[in-house]
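Worked Example 4.2. Consider the chain below.
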Amino acid sequence: MKAIIPEFDENSTRPLYLQLYDYIKKQILSNEMNPNEKLPSLRSLAERLNLSITTVNLAYSQLNVEGYIYSKPQSGYYVCNILHRGEKSAIDSKTELYDKSGMEYSLFPVDVEKTDESSVFQYDLSCFDFNKWKKCMNKVLTEYPHLLMFESDPQGELALRYEISKYIYRSRGVVCNPEQIVIGAGTQQITSHLCLILSKLGINHVAVEEPGYLPVKNMFRDRGFVITPVDVDKDGIKIHRLPANIKSAVYVSPSNQFPTGAVMPIAKRYQLLEWANHNNSIIIEDDYDSELRYFGKPIPALQGLDNDQRVVYLGSFSSTLFSSIKISYMVLPEKMADIFKEIGHGYTQTCSKTEQLTLALFMEQGLYQTNIKKLRHLYSRKLQKVIGAIHKYGNGIIKPTNTSSGINMIINVNSKKSAGKLCSEAKALGVSATPVSIYADDPTGHQLTMLVFYYNQIPINQIENTIQSLIKIWTTVK
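Applying the procedure from the previous section yields the following structure tokens:
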């Protein structure tokens, strides 16, 4: 066993457990640790490094959830066998992060002539600082009114694309420049653009997660694509069931699969990239709710591992700000971005220019990042209260799963009532729930009393009473 001897920076703002996580992850990826090699026990490593057992446990837990190590009961932690060990990720291999062309971006250009022209997913608005949003919007309206006299760029405002490129690199490990980003009014609008680009590439076959996000499935169907539902397990989509020897695309949410909450381990992410390369195919990565992870740090995006320009990355602000803002975006591989530039001149930008520039200012001032931190803290507290109430009053009636991220959880209700009936009774109490089966092409493959339970809109001081009332009504025979 190779000794684990990291050098800790006591002055760093990065917590010690993440510094230890960084060190071990680097050792694994650089082949300094061998597959199936046993790691030191929590206690022994804590004593050797003069750390608390909690610090070491947090580092091991993060490595475990990302698939770098695995645990054996009564034995300890071991190194996973990961493909592409020793290779640099796209993040490490790029020397120029935001713009490879050497262009100098101005956030709000003063020279006009140089300027190119659903409710369950709504988050708790108590976190959002509307006064600061209003100040940003007022600044746009009073200091940059000349920018509003022209149509927005079909790709979206450069100021916002620039801020997005910075933010998603820092928070999600996504490597891109602003010219690769396309902004649109909602995920369905972005997906519509993506369908045209895929058609230009000769792709008319899309594999989707089963169960998975219905609007996207329907969008691809409506555009004439052949849809192949592929089952998901605890590690995400089953790669061995993806189409082989055919140029296609696959739509996945590897960091927080909807609705199951499955997280794709690092080894499987490399396998998915290998599948895309072998079949000359495209991976569409929907980074749904990835930042709202309550234990450990958010899982890095698949796009950052991609050295071969195979991943399209999708993101949205609609759910982390307020739903009416309807600003989504996609990060395209460079060749696909070039295709959009060829066809994009025929499209009008669907997002409000005022809102785009307001959001750019909001992000530039660090206010969006602050909002995410507030949401993460609030929903972590809500989640713990929900789980606590279920354990306190549930008596085995409700069994929750995927309780580490997002704004919902899967619950299995021990009841003779149908899922539809259970959801109707929840709605009567002001709680949103939907049957898992409605997100699948084949509903019979899913337990009929398994529900997607949205705890996001329940006020935190009402959670215990709400759960108690739910259990009472669900166990009442009518």
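The two ends are 62 Å apart (CA to CA). The chain has three domains: 16-79, 130-365, 375-475. Compare this with Example 4.1 before moving on.
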